[in-house]
Structures are given as structure tokens and as C-alpha cells.
Design brief:
This protein is an alpha+beta fold and 422 residues long. 23% of the residues lie in helices and 24% in strands. The chain folds into three domains: 89 residues, no CATH class; 139 residues, Immunoglobulin-like, CATH 2.60.40; 165 residues, Domain of unknown function DUF1214, C-terminal domain (Jelly Rolls, Sandwich), CATH 2.60.120. The protein has nine helices and 20 strands. Strands 10, 11, 12, 14, 15, 16 and 19 form a seven-stranded antiparallel sheet that branches. It is globular, with a radius of gyration of 22 Å.
Amino acid sequence: MQESKIAAAFEYAFPLFEMARTRYRALEDEVNAQRHAPNTVRHERHLSDHTSRWITAPNNDTLYSNAWLDLSSGPVQIRLDKMPAGRYWSLAFMDVFTNHFAIVGQRLEGAGPVDLRVSGPDEQEPICGGREVRAPGRDAWLFIRCLVDGQDDLPNAHAMQERIDIVAPPDAIYGARVVPTSSRDPRNFLAVANELLGRNPPPEGERALLAEWADIGLRPGDTEAWERLGDATRELWKASIGPLHDKLRQASASGRREIQGWFASAKDMGDFGQNYPLRASVALGGLGALPPVEAMYFVRFHDDEKQLLDGRQRYVLRIPPTGIPTDSFWSFSMYEPTADSQRFFVENTIRRYSIGNRTHGIVWNEDGSMDIPMQRDEPSDPRLRANWLPTPDGPFQISLRTYMPRDELREGSAAMPRIDRR
């Protein structure tokens, strides 16, 4: 009984720990020379490459900006000047449970401008004009994406980033937090999760669930719960937490739909409700993934012969003549998985980490289809070389990102690309 409780509590709380860990790296970790204060925006000025390790499964289509909002001292004002027409941008607001409670961007706002107040659950002061976003807790992650069309387009993307401004409350005070050292240390895991649960009350419908886990140490606000646990419960946590991590790594496709060999975003991606297995697996393998209405993510682990993808083989990714139905853009990213199931770009000689409908120099077939060779060595055929997406020497995963996907893509009726061995 206690063992099953610990398993359920771990699955529930793992996303909170990952959010705390990502926040710590951005704001407090002395190893990070570019750490910044709460309620300030930090811009990534360079395209992600194989050295980009601050978040799993980075993309090569947008520049990231992000801010960790602390609403304990009052609301934060977010202002954004008008963006260039037709260019993708989005401001995604996530709570500590990794749910999106608001998305502002091209899909709904066009080019903008935007002026809004983000308030915490305790805010009593009414807003005087303008717009308000009410956060469910005192902590939130603002994750910003601005389209960039390759290295030469960086100045335009930088100009988009500069249009974003955050105004923090005057004289705001940000207290010390529990340092997230390791989610495999049950003492630290519980302290970090409980601190966030104390600052960010869970939804009303989940409070009874948390009450059931109080005896195993998951207690909102109690950062020293470990000290009050009995020896038997402590030992059970110590014995369980490693295997629970292993189980989570193996569940990377949990809750996702399979469409023509591709694992697609679940319908509740990014707004998980009570789908705790999916929420935990996404926190491990794709923290910050957007809901399907804004973006859809597809991943392949096998070719069309159901063999695991491996860079020691050669493949052709075949996009059908009907293309990828989106109202913004799409791209395929090449990832090498790590031992703990995170995913990062593959180092290669041509510095190509993704390929999509905006990639310069790509070659389309006469019928509107496209062939993308995926292999370690450079193709000899010039047409294939133009579309080459380099692989690692061993196992890899290919991910398809689609921004502002159309109905047929979200519903699973669109024709999907094949992956054939050469």
C-alpha cells in the first residue's frame, strides 16, 4: 500500500521538481554566468545547437526568451510592442504543474501590441483598464518564442525580442528557496515539491488526493517532512525512487497518440488535467511543450519497417505531396537521446540540426513532395545533399514540430511522412 502511494506521489510531484530545477538553473545556479533575477526577461540570442543543454529537446526555429515570475509581492506587467506581420511569436504562461494557463501570440493577437497584468491568486487590487491574466499560484514560467529564419535572420529575431518588456512590483522581495539538488534524493525531492505546493495551491479537486499522501511526506509547505517520517517509510522511499525514475524514462510515449508510426501530442498536452503519467513524462522529455491548438509535436523511434532508428543505417524521410498542414511553419529536428531520456541536437559537420519549410536551399520534388536523407555521411547525390539531415553514429529520434497546426493534423487525418531505409 505504501509503495503504491509513493509511486503515485512521485509521478504527481516530478513535474514540480523539474520546474524548480529549471528555475534554479536560470536564476540562482552560480555555474550559469547568465543567471537573472525573478520577473526579468532573459533572451537567448543564438540559435540552439548541440551544446544547448539548458532544456531538453530544444528547437532550432525560434529564439527563446523566458522569465520566472514571482507574484508574491504583487502583479507583474507584461508589455509587447507590435510585432512584424506574418512572423510567429508566442508568450506561454505555465504554472508549477506545467499547465499552460494563458498563451498570447500570433494565433490570437496577430501582430499585437499587448499590454497585460499577470496577477497571483491573492491579488485583491482591481485592474484599471487593460487586460489581466490570473495565475493559479505565486510562481509561473513565461516562455517566449520568436521565429528566426536561420543565422542571417538573427537581427530580425533580436528586434522582436526587444519589443518585450516586464515591469516588476516596486520593492519586491524574493525569499530563499530550497535548492533542488537531485530528484533521486527523496529528502530533497519532497522538500522541493512541498515548498512549491505551499506557494502554489493545487486545484481544488486534487486536495483530497494530496491528503492521502501526507503520511508518506508529500505535504504542501512542509519542507522538513522527511525528518518526520518513520524509518520504514524513509527506507521505502530510498528503495523506490531509483526504479521510479527508470519507469518514467521508459514511459516517454505514455498518453500520446500513434498516427501512422508517429507518436503525436496528446489532446491534453500542455493542459494535462489529471493525466499525471503524461504530465510527468513530458516534464522529463519535453518540458514546456505547447498545447496542440498552438503547436503539435510528433516523434518517431522506428522506421516504416518497425526497426529502431539508428545512424549506422541510411534512411529517407518522405514528405507526401500534400505537405504538412499548418498555418505557420514546420520542421524536423534530429535528436540523440541520453541515458536519462533527455534529447539534444546531434553534432555534425554542416551544423544542421533541423530542416523545415523555411530552410534555405532545400529541394522539392515536382509533385510537391520532399525527400530528406537521414544518415551520418554526406550523400553523393546533390539533390539529396541539399536536404541532408545528419544523424549520430547510433540511436536517434526524429521530431516533427508544427506551429498553428490545421484541423486535419490535430485530428490525425493528414497523411504523415514515411521513413524508409535506403
